[in-house]
Structure formats: structure tokens, C-alpha cells
Amino acid sequence: MPLLLPHLRRNAAAYGALLVGLLITGVAVLHVGRGIEERRTHRFEEAVRYGTLGMQQRMDTYQAMLLGTRGLFSSSQLVERSEFHAYVESLELRRRYPGIQGIGFAQWLRPEERQSHVAEIRAEGLSEYHLWPEGERPEYTAIVFLEPQDARNRRALGFDMFSEPTRQEAMRRAMETGLAAASGRVRLVQEDVPGSTETQAGFLIYVPVYHGGVLVPPERRREQMRGFVYAPFRMGDLVEGLRFPGFQNTIDLDIHDGTKTSDENLLFSSRRAGEAAVPGMRQEVVLEVAGRPWTLVFTAREAFVASNSSGQLVTVAISGVLVALLLFFITRSQVNARTAAEAASVEQQRLASEARAAVQVRDDFLGVAAHELRTPLTSLKLQLQLLYRQLRQGVEVDPGRVQRAVDACERQTTRLSQLVDSLLDVSRLASGRLELRLEALELDEVVRELARRFETEAQMAGVRLTVDAPRPIPGRWDRLRLEQVLTNLVANALKYGQGAPVDLRVRDEGEYARVEVEDRGIGIDPEDARRIFDRFERAVSSRHYGGLGLGLFISRQLVEALGGRISVESRPGQGSTFIVLLPRVTPSPKAHAAPTPPETPRTPLH
Ligand code: ADP
Q1: CA 253 to chain centre
Q2: Which helix or strand (DSSP H or E) is residue 277 part of?
Q3: 351 alpha carbon – ligand 1 mean position (Å)
Q4: From 371, 485, 496, 531, mutation site for ligand 1 pocket: most ligand atoms within 8 A of C-beta
Q5: What is the pLDDT of residue 600?
Q6: How many CB atoms lie within 10 A of CB 552?
Q7: Rounded distance, CA 242 to CA 227, Å?
Q8: Distance between alpha carbon 290 and the CA centroid of its chain, in Å?
Q9: pTM of the complete model
Q10: What pLDDT, in 10s, does the model give residues 114-142?
Q11: What is the chain's Cα-based Rg?
Q12: What distance in Å separates the CA atoms of residue 388 and residue 384, rounded to the nearest whole number?
């Protein structure tokens, strides 16, 4: 959690872009989804429209054809069998009117006309012709023509359709209205062909033919009845030729006789067993077919939904998510690049300011060094000029004065060589070329000896210098470097001690030896206490105190090379105590246990 927050804050823009991208994708998916749904509904509705229209047109065409056939009868009192045959043949039923089983004519007969009728037809050569079913009925009809004359149709000749209630209902309606009338669902006589396995639901359309033409007033229609032009239809064959988008493929059609959609009145169904309809994708249309309502039920299969949808939606969703992720990574890399650039520029600024500070320190140092070198040089030059003038005047030279002048010159050259030495030391330390020469020493002795060397200088400055070293402290150290460190500390104590007493203490601390140099002078501000051990660092103004700011730096390097530590405790205005801790045996790998060369011990750097 604590790591998550900064991560989120840093990448807020990238996550923002991701969020916006995902939101847009979500909206697009919703939108496209709705579009797909609308398009699907639209396509379904279109299929329903085309299907209904196709069915309607088909039925209208059949009715028109039947009405045309009626014309054949209206125009002549007697229609010959051959004439009817030729007429139907000219219609090209099979090709132009698929689904229709044939066209026929059923003659209207009163009971007393039966016998003469049968005799008449038999006389035409149809010796087996008879009126069926047998039985006494008030009215009869008899199929006399039925084209084309195939096995199925031939079976139907002589059949009294009026004897069967479903057919009778349609025939009555046709007779009474004078219009085409469709029957309810029937099993066609043609279906009873032996050996035929496929049975289909059927229906018939009747067109009434009256004696004396079409315009017969309703009350005289029964007595003027001549017969019916009719056509039987096999439902499956009829619908087979129907065309509309998706039909039998992704969209199914059920046709029911009447306005109720039950199995009993099902005329046709294209649904395959086990194929489920998509819920919500169902539409009912009621169609009027020759005075009878039919209910067309359109349903969509799963395949219809699949063919109209998801691929597109998945593509939109996937591409949306990909674009959002791309946006995220681009934004994040930009943010990262900017952060890195900012960090780099901060680092650059830091380096630049460090470089400026270093240049400043160097310039300051050069100024100080020039001043420090010039002081002894000027004094040397003055002494030499004085000596030269005395020698040129030819007067007798006072040996005492010469002695003093030479002493002064000697002091200044020593001072100069010390300055140069300390500069060389710094460069040696910087390049790591410092070499230690370890030897067995007694630290208390070294400190006492050093104090003796400072006696004159201390006396001249009116300073009391004491050494407190109660016990001998033996160890292995580099004498020269040790003296160099202590010399710097004592010289500083005299320089910054304001004439007050300076105490040197040496203590044994087991593995370590401890040397303290305490003065009661100007002291050091705590803020400066760490800095003064660095190169060129000073905590006083060069106007009041000369110096290069190198003594403590060199001392610290030497003490650390000997494996020890140097520190200071001080209060401004009350004095300072410099503490050096040295291991009794120097562990430095650089150490060389070589005998000390006969070299003059160094005097302070200042
Ligand atoms: P220098 O004395 O040449 O300036 P050092 O490296 O010896 O260089 O000392 C660095 C600084 O530490 C001095 O400039 C001074 O400000 C401070 N300093 C050193 N010793 C003392 C001391 N005993 N009392 C007060 N200040 C001191």
C-alpha cells in the first residue's frame, strides 16, 4: 500500500489515459452492441416483411390464375375435357405455379342428375368413373376435370368434395360470396397414392362457376350453381418455392390455418427437430388467403444471431483495449522520460554548482597561497637587499648584524620550503603515494620531544606549554608522520590560542593511544568543526590569520593512514581540544617497517 500510492501518483497520467481509453471502449462496445442489435432486429423485420409479401403474392397469383380459369367456363356452356387439358397445359403449372397440385373442375349435381352424369362421363371413355363416396345427400359435387392427369390426380376423379365438412365449408363460402375461398387444413385425396411415404398438409381454393356468368345476385347463386374451379395445394411444395432472406437457413416459418397457433392447425413448419428459436426473435403476421386467415410465425435460429453479431463486437472490444493499453504505455514512457530528464537536469545543476564551488575554492586557495608565499619572499628579499647595501658601502660589516640577517633569511627559506612541502604532501595524498615507515616508539617521549622543540616559540608568544604523560606508551608508528600531525596541532594551538596556556596529554587506552592538544583560544563554531578537516577549509578570515587551510587536512589523512581517528571538541571563545586516537600497532597494508632515514624532523606548516 505505501508503495502503491507513489506509483499511482507518478503514473497518474498514464492510468488516466488507460481509464479514458477503457471508458471509450466501453461506450463503443455498448454503442456497437446496440447497433448490432438494431441491425439484427431490422434484418429480422425485413425478412418477415419479404416473407409475408412473398406468401401474399404467391397466393394472389394462384387466385388470379383460378379466376382466369373460371373465365374459360364463363365463356362457354360446355367445356370439353381436351379443351381443359390444353388450357391447363398452357399455364405451365409446374414451372410457374410451384406447390399447386393441379387445377380441376367439380361439377354441381342435384341428386336426380347423378346417374345421367356418371353415364355421360363414362361415355367420354372413362369407363371406371363413379361418384364417391356413395350415399344419399341433398347436393353433390363431382370432380370431372383434374389436370395434369397423373396417378395422384386420376384417383380424385368422381370424388364429392361437398361430402367432406372442411371442403364443404369452403365451397359454401365460395358459392355464397362469389369469391375465391380457401379451405382449412385437409388431407388431400392425392396423398392416398399407395407407396407414397411423404404426406403433407394440404388445402384447396375454390372459385364458384354459375350458370349465366359471374354477376349472379346472392339469393340466386345456389340455384344457378354450375360447379367450382379449384386447385388443391400441398403445403410443403407451396412453401418450397418461397424466397426471402435467411429462409430455411437462419429463419424459420410456421404457417397455421386460422388465428390460433396450435399444432392441430399447423399447415407448414420449416423448423427442424431440436433446433431452438432465439427468444425475443419471433413475429406473427396474420395473412388473408382467399377469405381465410392464416397466421405466419417467423422465428430466428441461433445461427441468425451468430451471423449478425459478436465477431464485430469482440473486434471492437479487443482493439479498444489494445489502443487503451498502447495509450497507457506511450503516456507512461513519456512521463518516465520527462521524470528522467528532470532528474538529469537536477543532477546536472548539482554537478555544475559543485564544479563552480570547486573553481571558487581553487581560486580562493590560489589567492591565499600566493599571499602566503609572497610574505616570506618579501621579507627574504628585504634582508638580502640590506646585506647587499652594507657590503657595497665598504664600511666594516658588523658580524652581529650579518648573523641576524642571515638567521632571518634562513627562517624565511625554511618557511618557504615548509609551504612547498605541505603543497607536495597534499598532492602526494591525493595520488595515494603516501608511504609509512613504522618503527618501535614511545609516544610519551615523542610528545615530550616535540614540546621541547616548541619551547622557544611558546616563550616568545608568552604561552605556557605543558605535557602530561604519566606512563610510557610503546607502539609501532611512523615517527615523521606522527611528528607532522602533532606539530600541526600544537602550532594551531599557539596560533589560535590567544596566548593562553596549552596542554598536551598522552593516555594509554589499551589497544589505542590517545593524544590531546588543548588550548583556551578562539574556539571553533560547531558548524565549522567537521569542515576544517577538509582541503583548503578554514574557519577564520585570512586577514587575521595566515594559512593555507591544509594542516588539518594533511593531519587527518596521516592519522587515518596510521589506522586512527582525529576529532575536535570546542566551544567558540573558550578554546578547543584536538583528540588523536592511534592504534598501538598500525594495521595499514601500505605500512613499510623500514628504518627511519636520517631526515630532519619537520617543523610546523605555519
Ligand atoms: P590553517 O591553520 O592554515 O588555516 P588548518 O588546516 O591547520 O589550516 O586549520 C584549518 C582551520 O581550522 C583554521 O583556519 C582555523 O579556522 C581552524 N583551527 C585549527 N586549529 C584551531 C584551534 N586550535 N583553535 C581554533 N581554530 C582552529
Answers
A1: 47
A2: strand 277-289
A3: 28
A4: 496
A5: 36
A6: 24
A7: 31
A8: 64
A9: 0.53
A10: 999 999 999 998 999 999 999 999 999 99
A11: 65
A12: 6
